[in-house]
Design goal:
alpha/beta; 295 residues; 33% strand
């Protein structure tokens, strides 16, 4: 690739020794696409072993056309992404064009109306999709650019392809996590430039939202705002943290100043990991792993 046009960068790659190119037909491919990053994971459907994980930073692009071109380049230059023999392909989208609707109120004909409440939608250029949560009575309605949707769908004609929104992976992941952990916890996912907050009540989704972050103080501001709204006490509430934040980082120490009962979340237990995954901190890539739960 011409160095002048390098527009994506692989910053993390873990590949298990058991990965076998001849077994793609029994592997599940999980892709998560953001505006400025992309993650990939491969899971063997026969034993739920995570075999591959990759994390890319994408160059900042100004339009959907530029993003699609950048993704097309990355996919074409990747030795696996263009393979058509996967068992299933799950594609998760990071965006703010989504809405969570209680299933009792959901009307399929009203998809556009649900999204119009908090985002601008162009029905000519955007496909509106929805995902019914398995362990929650929420339905996530979200938009994807039609050309991106059609292009991704066309890549895998022989596989079962499903699209979800990042929020759905996080919600399903948290519900699964809380089965074996303390109840009434507040869950944080620190993404690049975003904070996600999830809470459950009686094993059901109570609250989910995502916030754009410009400076570190925004994290504290939004966490306190949500705590207040949910009548949670910052001194006594348990808070579990996943995402792009180091265990010894100054940012974590800042969190700890404001929230005493804060701790890092574990790696999901529904997947199996070889020793090579010890290179990845347990609280990283929670949203990527959780795509596995979204059938």
């Amino acid at each position: 690739m011409d160095t002048a046009t390098i527009s994506y960068k692989l910053i993390k790659k873990i590949k298990d020794e058991k990965f076998d190119i001849d077994k793609l037909h029994q592997y599940n491919l999980m892709i998560q696409i953001g505006i400025r990053d992309l993650q990939i994971a491969v899971v063997d459907s026969t034993n739920n072993r995570c075999l591959l994980l990759e994390d890319y930073i994408l160059a900042s692009v100004k339009s959907y056309n530029a993003l699609k071109e950048l993704l097309a380049t990355l996919f074409e230059e990747h030795h696996l992404l263009m393979a058509g023999f996967w068992k299933t392909v799950r594609i998760s989208l990071k965006s703010n064009k989504f809405s969570l609707v209680p299933s009792a109120l959901f009307v399929k004909e009203a998809l556009h109306d649900y999204l119009r409440l908090n985002s601008t939608i162009d029905p000519e250029q955007e496909e509106i999709l929805y995902y019914k949560h398995i362990k929650s009575d929420a339905i996530c309605v979200f938009a994807i650019r039609k050309e991106l949707y059609n292009w991704l769908s066309s890549l895998y004609p022989n596989a079962e392809v499903g699209f979800i929104h990042q929020s759905s992976a996080l919600i399903e992941g948290v519900i699964n996590f809380e089965k074996t952990n303390k109840k009434n916890t507040m869950y944080l996912y620190i993404d690049r430039f975003k904070l996600h907050i999830v809470t459950l009540k009686n094993n059901k989704l109570e609250y989910y939202n995502q916030f754009s972050i410009k400076q570190f103080n925004d994290y504290i501001k939004y966490i306190m705002l949500v705590m207040k709204g949910l009548n949670k006490n910052q001194k006594t509430s348990d808070v579990i943290l996943w995402g792009y934040i180091g265990k010894q980082s100054p940012h974590y120490n800042e969190f700890y100043k404001f929230i005493k009962n804060i701790s890092f979340g574990d790696r999901p237990d529904y997947l199996n990991y070889g020793y090579i995954f010890d290179e990845v901190q347990d609280h990283h890539f929670f949203d990527l792993y959780s795509i596995h739960l979204c059938d």
